[in-house]
Design goal:
Shape of chain A: globular
CATH topology of chain B: Chemotaxis protein chec
Number of domains of chain B: 1
CATH superfamily of chain B: CheC-like
Largest interface: A-C, 30 and 33 residues
Largest sheet of chain A: 5 strands, parallel
Chains: A alpha/beta, B alpha+beta, C alpha/beta
Low-confidence stretches of chain A: none
Distance between the termini of chain B: 33 Å
Shape of chain B: globular
CATH architecture of chain A: 3-Layer(aba) Sandwich
Structural class of chain B: alpha+beta
Oligomer: heterotrimer
Helix content of chain B: 25-40%
Number of domains of chain A: 1
Strand content of chain A: 15-25%
Mean pLDDT of chain B: 86
Structural class of chain A: alpha/beta
Helix content of chain A: 40-55%
Mean pLDDT of chain A: 94
Chain lengths: 127, 172, 291
């Protein structure tokens, strides 16, 4: 399994990369939505994108909307990982095509639970 | 005068409550930095911050959330987030990134406390004390200790100053 | 920062011995994240802390606690809730003329299990059916939390699908609050399973998950006996994932629903025999069991 981690914070990308490694994922990183789209356009095809919302150049919401327009990318699972925590924002992200939503702060178990819900890791990958 | 006071009271009423800010800050802190013990709130040491990180919230409610830290506190926070040993070299960029992400997480959750819709800015990190706008009023101040280092989390409500005329004039 | 494989093996052995919970090497980072606060409190590195644990029975108990007494998650283990939706509920729909379902979450901790049951029933029961979920725990603090029905951001992230969050929760300060339509279904109550039970109705489903592992065989037998008395003759007992293989004795029969092992009351020896024969003779799905 391979994930694309999209967050403007290097510290956050590192935290997510470590958690994903524990779940058997390899990872590529992008610092904003535009960088991530560029990676997809040159042929990177991850199983999962973890997407921050507030980023410079292109935010996560626009990234999700762009990805959802492209037929060949429909099998990519999109999970928002963001500090945006209002009810309305979650509704908006899901409507744009995000499959799941994790609010920062999160624990390793929270990421594992969500990936289990999405069928990307086995049941009980974590205790 | 009375009208102005009422306006201030309304500003406070519409702003996040200290207990809620405290709770969410402790959650953010405990989740990513718990290894150095919990964040103790209520210890205002009146320290001189070396770094300040802030995010502003604009929309139905306007304000700014700031995190002020000493250099050694910020280094500790950065090492803890990045999982680095004390011996490993840190550059300012790492530090700016880490405290910026912390204030982003706190600020985003503060935004969740107020009546929306609002937008969250990208974090702004600067050397020294946080400078709020002249039209903004402090509604929350959490003096904290973490890993034996002082730090402060503040919320200022109100719009930032519309123009920057006062400062350049003073500078002249 | 991280633990040696030797230290990890020691900790996982300790936890397995005490609780039967498994922490294989690939879950090392989880062990580390749970032990980190304990090590910090002791002012030691992780490795040095585990060194102390080896010599200190008190610290051993704390380690076991940290690795087992977990904050519970929404839809924990998923399988029981899938089985409830796809196996148990369809069976009840055929056999409950009163159009009412009673479930007991018998060790509900802070309430994620009973509210997960409530969400599942809300989505899978027809609109003209009602349900009640009794939520009990031995801890009054936990039961008070169930009644409060408010959860912090970190708790919300644990296993709750975003679609369910949006549907069944509203923001309340820095917390999220369960909507009234689910809260009305849940009845919080303090119950100590090791003592005589208070008056309880007859349940269609009892979820008793990750509790029996903490008891010795005799207590386990007593608890199961009491629970059986509250269960409808055609009801279901759902145990924790590490408990399903337990031998519950002649009072229970085991049944499979999808990937979940369930238990049902066995009435008498002859009933037990015929139940086994019919299970062998028929398609062993739950909807087919109607004795």
């Amino acid at each position: 399994m391979h994930a694309l981690i999209i967050d403007d914070s290097r510290a956050m990308r590192l935290i997510l990369r470590r958690i994903l490694a524990g779940l058997g994922f390899g990872a590529t990183e992008a610092a904003n939505g535009r960088e991530a789209l560029d990676l997809l356009e040159v042929g990177l095809h991850p199983d999962l994108c973890l997407v921050d919302w507030n980023m410079p150049v292109m935010d996560g919401y626009d990234f999700v909307s762009e990805v959802r327009k492209v037929r060949e990318w429909r099998d990519i699972t999109l999970m928002m990982v963001t500090t945006e925590s209002e009810h309305a924002q979650i509704v908006k992200a899901l409507a744009a095509g995000a499959h799941e939503y994790v609010i920062k702060p999160f624990t390793a178990e929270a990421i594992a639970d969500k990936l289990e819900l999405l069928g990307l890791v086995q049941d009980g990958a974590l205790a | 005068m009375i009208l102005a006071m009422n306006g201030e009271q309304a500003l406070v009423a519409a702003s996040p409550k200290p207990t809620d800010v405290r709770k969410l800050t402790q959650e953010v802190w405990g989740t990513f930095l718990g290894e150095h013990g919990p964040l103790e709130v209520g210890t205002d040491l009146g320290f001189a911050p070396d770094w300040s990180a802030s995010v502003s919230v604009k929309g139905e409610w306007n304000g700014v959330v700031a995190l002020e830290m000493t250099t050694s506190g910020a280094q500790r926070l950065t090492r803890s987030m990045l999982g680095l040993e004390t011996s490993e070299e840190l550059v300012d960029g790492d530090l700016v990134d880490a405290i910026g992400e912390m204030v982003n997480m706190i600020g985003g959750n503060v935004k969740g406390l107020v009546r929306g819709p609002c937008r969250l800015s990208l974090p702004l990190v600067a050397a020294g004390r946080f400078a709020h706008g002249s039209g903004q009023r402090e509604v929350v101040r959490l003096g904290c200790t973490w890993a034996a280092e002082p730090l402060a989390i503040t919320v200022h409500a109100g719009r930032p100053a519309k123009s920057l005329t006062t400062r350049p004039l003073e500078a002249r | 920062m991280s633990l040696s494989s030797l230290a990890l093996a020691y900790v996982s052995d300790l936890v397995r011995r005490e609780t039967a919970m498994l922490y294989p090497p690939e879950k090392g980072y989880l062990v580390e994240s749970r032990l980190q606060p304990l090590a910090a409190e002791a002012g030691l590195s992780l490795e040095a802390y585990v060194g102390r644990v080896r010599r200190d029975a008190g610290e051993q108990a704390r380690v076991v606690d940290a690795l087992t007494i977990n904050e519970t998650s929404w839809f924990r283990d998923n399988t029981p809730f899938r089985a409830l939706a796809t196996g148990i509920v369809p069976g009840l729909l055929e056999h409950r003329a009163e159009r009412h379902v009673r479930v007991w979450s018998a060790a509900c901790s802070s309430g994620q299990e009973p509210y997960s049951i409530a969400m599942t029933l809300k989505e899978h029961l027809p609109h003209d059916w009602t349900a009640e979920i009794w939520a009990s725990d031995v801890s009054p603090t936990m039961v008070a939390r169930v009644a409060e029905a408010r959860y912090g951001q970190v708790e919300m992230n644990r296993g709750l699908p975003a679609t369910s969050l949006v549907k069944y929760f509203t923001r309340a300060g820095s917390d999220w609050e369960v909507v009234p339509e689910l809260r009305e279904m849940v009845r919080p109550q303090v119950v100590n399973l090791v003592r005589e039970l208070p008056p309880l109705p007859t349940f269609d489903v009892v979820m008793l998950r990750n509790v029996l592992i903490y008891f010795d065989l005799e207590v386990r037998r007593q608890v199961l006996h009491r629970v059986r008395a509250t269960l409808a003759p055609d009801g279901y007992l759902v145990l924790g994932s590490s408990e399903t293989a337990m031998d519950l004795g002649p009072e229970w029969v085991r049944e499979t629903c999808g990937r979940l092992q369930l238990h049902r009351p066995a009435c008498t020896t002859s009933d037990l025999l015929s139940a086994k024969q019919s299970a062998a003779a028929h398609d062993p799905t739950l909807t087919a069991t109607g004795s």
